[in-house]
């Protein structure tokens, strides 16, 4: 079937939104998060050794379990830290960086932006970015949408939480995905994004992050979802889990 790609939005349209000057302080985490990992144990010379796995990946080994109920956290250097469930981690965990991603879906089409600079440049994606100090995730989602596409949501609801793990970055990214069905203003090209409408049947997955073909279909079906994605060298998807939910707990 011939492609029915919709035209690019006019480049010359001035964006009405003028972002405030950048702030220097950024919020990189909400509260410390304990990730659940699989721990297989074996006895070695009278001591119990734990090997931690998450998403099929071995994270590390060498922890001694002394009979208490232990929880494990993934660490920067790929090892595991132990706590007894009351917050006394022996090593500090790396909390995920919080980000937002807003996808505008109206009728049978979706608004994506070609990322012009920074992380993910060259990919089509929704609009979003890092949650800054002093703002809620929802507020960050509204701000990033406005900064990157020039539009303001009339209604917006959270649809998913995706966590991206990288073997070349110790800090996971927790991306909160929102749906906008109605908005005010006109999408226009900004310094960061060049917006463009795509028919739902023609989403350009070959020019998007490798996880997108896995969860976009659930987003398009109107479902709630939570996923974990593991990347090699930032861009190559190695493994994942994705769960469709009745309710999002965060
Ligand atoms: N694997 C992935 N799949 C996906 O669909 N979106 C991803 C993704 N990894 C990151 N993203 C999204 C999350 C977020 O909306 C965006 C990355 O945000 P940015 O780095 O552009 O943040 P900022 O706009 O705050 O950037 P700066 O102002 O340049 O620091 O890419």
UniProtKB/TrEMBL annotation:
Coiled coil: none annotated. Residues 93-224 form the Nudix hydrolase domain. Its cofactor is Mg(2+). Its EC number is 3.6.1.56. It catalyses: 8-oxo-dGTP + H2O = 8-oxo-dGMP + diphosphate + H(+); 8-oxo-dATP + H2O = 8-oxo-dAMP + diphosphate + H(+); 2-oxo-ATP + H2O = 2-oxo-AMP + diphosphate + H(+); N(6)-methyl-dATP + H2O = N(6)-methyl-dAMP + diphosphate + H(+). Belongs to the Nudix hydrolase family. One of its GO terms (cellular component) is nucleus. It is an enzyme of class 3 (hydrolase). It comes from Ceratodon purpureus (Fire moss). Monomer. Its main location: nucleus. GO terms for biological process: DNA protection. Oxidized purine nucleoside triphosphate hydrolase which is a prominent sanitizer of the oxidized nucleotide pool. Catalyzes the hydrolysis of 2-oxo-dATP (2-hydroxy-dATP) into 2-oxo-dAMP. Also has a significant hydrolase activity toward 2-oxo-ATP, 8-oxo-dGTP and 8-oxo-dATP. Through the hydrolysis of oxidized purine nucleoside triphosphates, prevents their incorporation into DNA and the subsequent transversions A:T to C:G and G:C to T:A. Also catalyzes the hydrolysis of methylated purine nucleoside triphosphate preventing their integration into DNA. It is found in: Nucleus. It holds the Pfam family NUDIX. Keywords: Hydrolase, Magnesium, Metal-binding, Nucleus. InterPro entries: 8ODP (IPR003563), NUDIX_hydrolase-like_dom_sf (IPR015797), NUDIX_hydrolase_CS (IPR020084), NUDIX_hydrolase_dom (IPR000086). GO terms for molecular function: 8-oxo-7,8-dihydroguanosine triphosphate pyrophosphatase activity; dATP diphosphatase activity; metal ion binding. This is Oxidized purine nucleoside triphosphate hydrolase. Gene3D superfamilies: Nucleoside Triphosphate Pyrophosphohydrolase. It comes from the Eukaryota.
């Amino acid at each position: 079937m011939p492609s029915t790609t919709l035209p690019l939005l006019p480049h010359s349209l001035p964006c009405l939104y003028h972002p405030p000057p950048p702030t220097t302080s950024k919020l990189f985490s909400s509260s410390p998060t304990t990730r659940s990992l699989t721990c297989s144990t074996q006895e070695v010379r009278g001591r119990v050794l734990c090997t931690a796995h998450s998403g099929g990946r071995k994270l590390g080994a060498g922890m001694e379990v002394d009979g208490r109920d232990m929880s494990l956290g993934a660490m920067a250097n790929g090892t595991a830290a132990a706590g007894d469930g009351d917050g006394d981690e022996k090593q500090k965990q790396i909390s995920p960086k919080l980000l937002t991603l807003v996808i505008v879906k109206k009728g049978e089409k979706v608004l994506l932006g070609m990322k012009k600079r920074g992380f993910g440049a060259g990919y089509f994606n929704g609009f979003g970015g890092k949650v800054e100090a002093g703002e809620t995730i929802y507020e960050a989602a509204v701000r990033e949408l406005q900064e990157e596409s020039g539009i303001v949501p009339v209604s917006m609801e959270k649809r998913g939480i995706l966590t991206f793990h990288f073997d070349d970055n110790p800090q996971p990214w927790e991306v909160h995905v929102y749906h906008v069905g109605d908005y005010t203003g006109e999408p226009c090209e900004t310094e960061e994004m060049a917006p463009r409408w795509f028919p739902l049947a023609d989403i350009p997955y070959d020019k998007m992050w490798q996880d997108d073909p896995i969860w976009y279909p659930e987003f398009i079906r109107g479902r709630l979802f939570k996923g974990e994605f593991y990347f090699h060298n930032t861009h190559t998807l190695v493994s994942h889990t994705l769960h469709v939910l009745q309710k999002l707990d965060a």
